[in-house]
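U., I forgot to send this yesterday:
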Amino acid sequence: MSAKSKPSAWSVSLPIEQLEEGLILCPVEPSPANNALCKDWEAPFTWPHIRSLMHVNHKYGGRKAVWFALNDRPQEEVWNTGWHLWYDKAIISREAVPEDLTIKTTVAFEEVTTGYGSDNNVHVNPWIGIVARMQDLRRYYFLCLEYPNALTLYRREDNYWLPIGRQQVALEVWTPYDLELRMKGSRFEALLNGKTIFNANDYAYTSGKAGLRVNCTSILLDFEMHADESAVNSFNIGMNRKETERMEAAATLPKPAVVQEIDLSEYGDKPVVRFGSFVSPERQMLITPSRKDASTLTLRSLEGEILWKSDVPGFGRFEITGQRADGCCDIYGYTKEAFVVLDGKTGKVKKQRMLADFPHPPRKAPGFTPDVMADLRGTGGKNDFVLTEGTDLRHLWALTEDLDDIWDVEMASGGGHGSQVCACDINGDGLDEVCGGATLVSAQGEILWKQQEVVERLRCPNGGHVDSAQMGFFMGPDEIPTVHMQSSSAGSLVVNALTGEMIAAHPQGHVQGGSVGKVVPGVPGMQIMACCRWGNYGLTAIYDGLGRLLSRFQPDYASDNVRAINWSGDEVRHILIGGSSYRTGIYDWQGRCLIDLSQYTGKEIPHTLRNGHAQCIAVPLAQYSPNDSIVIRVLSKMLILAGE
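Result:
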């Protein structure tokens, strides 16, 4: 972070006096001048589609201040974007700061109404406080004015808020308070209006980011941090050592090079590209107008030749089948009236079944994908469709490749996103079992278990369903198979796939996406990467097959797109994180960015245009590299990168 000259060796402040009146750190109504002044700060709870609600004005006694206007949210805006996005606001340093420092702020309560958010659905009181030594959005020290009667220093670890220092104080609204936190090693001193209120000791977090956090309408008058020369020297030594280690690890990887640039503007301003083997075992590009509109599909070769075009009115999100005997794939998805299978070789409708003809006509939520394919009849391939209804509905049914009924059952809990259904042969009979909605179903449609503890945990605020799941022998073929469930605000849950017994539960936040890969050296089998969304965007945890936590990091607050990538040809993969303007790149399992890809992600494009209209994926494209290539699309421009 930039610093200003003070008697201490290092000093940083939020430049409130220099800010123009208006919003700060707002993606919807950006102020270039204010954003430039706040370039060293981030607003992690400002979702890219909503206003920051952080106004600079002279409302507080004619003094320039930042007003956290949580009451400035029309009902329509709340319902259109989600109620859980409004009760947490924060301003956090973009980078780590010295661990031994003093943080001072002057704040005031205006209104003390608050509520649950996706980041915190356990411990909710009206508060304003200092965030210190932040590891990620759910692990930090928090010195807060806790209305109406306490000053508390918490150590937060996910859903656990451990008070390590607390003292009753009388708090009023519309009254300025000078709050100060002094830290040196394991020692903490909390001051209010210049007076020491308590001292405390704790050893959990030794370094990290810092800032301010509120969950009610409140006012920020001043915020500054200071560290002495000794603290700065110690901090710099540690940071230099980490940077040297990161650069040494990065030096072993191939450098990325742009091998092809493609203009997709003829397909609209936000097309989506999927790669698959449709007309031959090589890869082709399937292009649709947007994520939710696939009514017009175009198949192109990587060289740009149009292979076919197809119009399927009302076709929404779709999925690609596994490769058939000839090495090619088909396409399946929904219109409003029918479940449709398209021939990958021609784009023509191959089979369809009217939704009204199903035993329980499905109600698909707009924009949701089909679910999964499985081998339920011993055909030797994933040729059977397993489908659910829309969000939070419980029906699960299976169809043959000819769209005939196999079975239908009711799950223990409602479904989330389509990726919450998974299939694997876990008992060795050559047929797949299917897991969905905390329920395991045999290939014949018999319910093998229902996991009631998962159902109960899903009753938490902003829970309700499993969003994504993976099932398999992740620790190795001779170990027990497990199901990993990314279970919205219930966290990451792991179940023994054979018995249905819960074996691990991690309150990670609103966990929505998951993927599997060999990304941690020295750990048997495959690992599961579980990534948060909503108030915890970008918080990624890596678990082994039995659900033991191996690593955890949060490189940004914008992306929940985390996948393993074969970039170097080694057995252990790296991690591709895409979706953020600033932190897109190739990472290792410790969360270190080894290859920065942000120069390709359209940083100059406003959030409102870029977010949701970009892709960053890893794809095996043999003509460019024996390993994976990286495809980055921002609006209608697409780049393909391969290792040099």
